[in-house]
Specification:
Distance between the termini: 26 Å
Helix content: 25-40%
Number of strands: 9
Number of helices: 9
Length: 379
Amino acid sequence: MTELSTEGERPVVSTRDPDELRERLQAWLVERVGAAAEPVVSSLRTPERNGMSSETVLFDLETTSGATRTTTAYVARLAPETSAVPVFPTYDFDKQFRVMQLVTRTTGVPVPPAPWFEPDPTAVGSPFFVMERVEGEVPPDVMPYNFGDSWLYHASPDEQRQLQDATVTVLAELHSIEIDAHDVSFLELDRPEPTPLRRHVADQWDYYKWVSGDRPQPVIERCFAWLEEHWPDDEGPTALSWGDSRIGNVLYRDFAPVAVLDWEMAGVAPREMDLAWMVFLHRFFEDLADQLGLPGMPEFLRLPDVAATYERVSGHTPHHLAFFVMYAALRHGIVMSRVQQRSVHFGEAEMPEDPDDLVMHRATLEAMLDGTYWAKLGL
């Protein structure tokens, strides 16, 4: 998930002591690789440019095999401590680990090998899993890649389009998994609503109530009402959904995806949910660029282009895209409200008098509600 500071500073995402974490992780790895391998964890650090709702830790593991000492680069994803004001009320690392295994087993989508999962929080203070580290470039969140100082911004239009089309193709391949042929029950929401989309939206309402607490946010509630008024008459086929399908969760080399990351929002949902999330998360950054008088990347990840590419590579014609873009904007609004609450908690921001101002893109939601925003998306 995006945790954005337009000041160029990375928000607080962890309250852990890195030295203690390194020692505990090393002790845990002794049990995984064996004491004879003399495992040593070194170079433990957090990424500098992209914030995550889960905690991400980079480290090197030195081990001995025979007379050879080798170093392997890994990434650990940890559930955040409650003292870090987590973005989500729960973190299901078993789900993330299992969906990565399913995608690896059934598709060519590039998912990093994940050798270890630890459900017991006593090891390092929370559940976690470990992936091999893949080398590549990530479109940065801080500062956003479209603000004018990133490798993607300075790429040629053809290179930007190459990255866009390759990422949409990843979605098409992910959605090609025949979910009826696999056990995806661990991805389904245990709720009474009659369809996956109904269950997903109802679950988001519960999440909103958790985030807002005793300070309701009228703009968010108006968006939920808009969804109900514009509910699709045909929700379309259900697919395995990545959930956080944005380019900031992909590692690229030569503008091609080499690792697809961040599966904490995975589930089962209509295909359009991932398409709309990818497009809206770029529009979110574009709107910020507009507010700051920056040129941005207005020709990148345009909804008509994304939909056309997806139809060409998948054979599925995307439908009801305004509905799913609104839903993406609403979901991101709830997340950004929680991120702002975290910033207030750590003294990085002040609590606004109007709770709607916790939503960084409040103006976008209001423009969607009054109908003036859709032309920006080609709708």
